[in-house]
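So, can you check what follows?
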Amino acid sequence: MKYITVLKAAVRVHPTLPKVIGPLQSRFFQHDFVPRDPNAKPKRYKYPAVYDPYGPKPPPSDKVVELAERIAALAPEERRQIGPMLKERLSLPKTQEISTEGMELGGGGGAAAGGAGKVEEKKVEKTAFDVKLEKFDAAAKIKVIKEVRAFTNLGLKEAKDLVEKTPVLIKQGITKEEANEIIEKIKAAGGVAVME
């Protein structure tokens, strides 16, 4: 009894608190899971054929239907003039054509073959070249390694390993003039290099 009195003195409750919140309540965890009947068949939901996030649309007005019929009755030449005229009247921004150069747009043989011929005619001149070391004279191996070191900024061991892996690309993405200079230097050192 003495213990309870000390406890009540230690835990002081504001005198108006029980009136505000009412009697203390105890709540227990109650799960929402209801076990399913194992013999029950799964529910089948009916989904719409096409999902429209804006819901069903109202039918077009009589004016719009009449206008569509009048447009359909026009000659093809007059129909082609409608689009540009509406763009002009409604002040719509001008659209730019998308370039399709270099893209294969058809799966058909005849049309795609004709398009490929046009692409070949407009072949872009190559600006970046690679230099490949094909072979070298065994007696001139040291000279070739020194030349490779000169224009690749490799160490002695890396340049030696690179030269021993022939045929190998030794310089990539350079201009035609630089490639020709490197080929001449390697040729003078006793190696054979080609431009790709």
